[in-house]
Amino acid sequence: MPAQLAVGASLVLMSAVLAVGASRFPAEKGFTVLGAHVYPYAVAVFLGIVGVSISLQAAGLRSPADVSDGITGAIPGGKAGALWVTAGLTICALLIAHIGFVLAAALLFACSAQGFGSRHPARNLAIGIALALPVYWLFTIGLGVSLPPLVNAWI
Amino acid sequence: MPEIFSSLATGFTTALAPINLLCGFIGCLLGTAIGVLPGIGPALTIALLLPITAKVDPTGALIMFAGIYYGAQFGGSTTSILLNTPGESASMVTALEGNSMARNGRAGPALATAAIGSFVAGTIATVLLTLFAPVIANAALKFGPAEYFAILVLAFTTVSTVLGSSTLRGLASLGLGLAIGLIGLDSLSGVARYTWGVPELIDGIEVVLVAVGLFAVGEALYGVLYQGEETGSRHRLTSVWMTRADWKRSIPAWLRGTLIGFPFGSIPAGGAEIPTFLSYSTERRLSKHPEEFAANKGEGAIEGVAGPEAANNASATGSLVPLLTLGIPTSATAAILLAAFQNYNLQPGPLLFQTSGELVWALVASLYIGNTILLILNLPLVGIWVKLLRIPRPYLNAGILVFATIGVYGMRQSSFDLLLMLAIGWLGVLMRRLDFPIAPVIVGMLLGPMAEKQLRNALSISQGDWLVFVTQPISASLLALTLLVLIAPPLLHARGIRLQEHD
């Protein structure tokens, strides 16, 4: 099965990356018996073996049973939905420090809701703000979490 | 023995203090609510609430977290039975059997057996915890780095071999977790490993970030891509009383479920799915009414709900054993609880019983109290929990992502962390799609660095002598056990006995 073969190959690749990286660590050991490179090498070897085994299994045997949750039917979002959600998270991540938590979270909420199938962007944005504001107060003032404000401590 | 009882009694007086009782109550309430809601689980919730450790004293906070842990299971079974929407994967079996019962008009007894069974299992498991934990903690005082390393190696093997669909995939997930755990500054030698010049990676990747990314973001994305509309149907709540026959069939199932769940909870077996599936197949095999099981196209057998629910709860309590006595978390939620302890500068392990004995015993006492609260809370309030699910799914999922953002951003105020969380979320989607288990990643991430540290300490002390692992008796027996775990499944397999849920 091609997907599994790809997984096996990427594991081997990861193993190689780990090994190459480990070979570059300075070898001076100081007080330790095992340098910083030993364990990474071990993990690299482990990953390499697992990667090769998975590739072999993929190439040799029949494909594993298809994963199915038993829930079929219309996908509310599908690929477009996933893109909306990803966009929402990305926007929030990039803008949160600039426009403050409340607005960034509201944007995230609206984009995600869009991705999950809701088709009322303006309403979602409003709900997003209505949700983000009290949550912001709860976490910043109530719990002392440091979330970026837009204007002052309250918004 | 008598000291155990007196310590427990003191624990009760602390746990029953009004403020702690309130914390426990809030925890149970919150836990049940999130157990009902799909997509958000106890691990994520506790991670979000970690900031309260700055304001609330440790006893109260830990009692609340424990309440959330248990409450989530109660909530999950309620929705599984009534709406066929398991709140988490371990409730899948309950959904199968319990919803069958509900569709045939027996929702009440299904709920009752789930609630009472969880209470019975939780209480028995807590008794076992009470008896075993001090013993293990005492034994662990003699543990040196070699012994800890041997335990961790054992943990790695149990995670990978006693697992869902494929040992090889479990190992792959574990390997991924180990690799992620390598990122960061090496504490012993000061070498920055695999950071590639990115400053945010110097401290390594936080467990909470990976957990939130895989579970919250990954779940949300997976839901968007692959799941169809909810087809859950509501069932009217009939009388909650169980008949005598129900009791007769449930009680042995509860006991068996507890005995299966507790040991599996205390080893890193990658989640509560194993004990619940195992309990289900045991009940199916032992039942005098096999035709009633939903898997056999029946109307739903009560043992099929009683056993797995008990196993689920017992395994949650079981996971507290290695956490409290050895400081080794065996599930994602246990990992976050460990983080909570560390926020208070408390290190779970054998010393915890010595230095903060009152806290530990108050926590244990709160488990008993929490179980009772949950039993009383759940059955009458079922209607309310079900109403929670009326929130439209898009808003629910979007809200979960907002909370995930708070949880991750609140840790280090880093946008990089948020983007990383997104990337990990996509990784989670890939893993789920390709049927790679997720729990071993978290275990690998946490236990990998621990294992390396112990390995190096052991070798430092023994001055480079590798034989120390087999010459020390405890370490040697643990390694022997590891070998046993590795070769037992293929041997059993050859004899036709399977440990996995696919029959």
From TrEMBL, chain A:
Ribonucleoprotein as UniProt keyword: no
Domain called DUF1468: residue spans: 6-148
UniProt xrefs under InterPro entries: DUF1468
Coiled-coil annotated residue ranges, if any: none
Residue spans crossing the bilayer: 6-26, 38-61, 81-113, 125-147
Domain of life of the source: Bacteria
Cross-referenced Pfam families: TctB
Alphabetic keyword roster: Membrane, Transmembrane, Transmembrane helix
Protein name: Tricarboxylic transport membrane protein
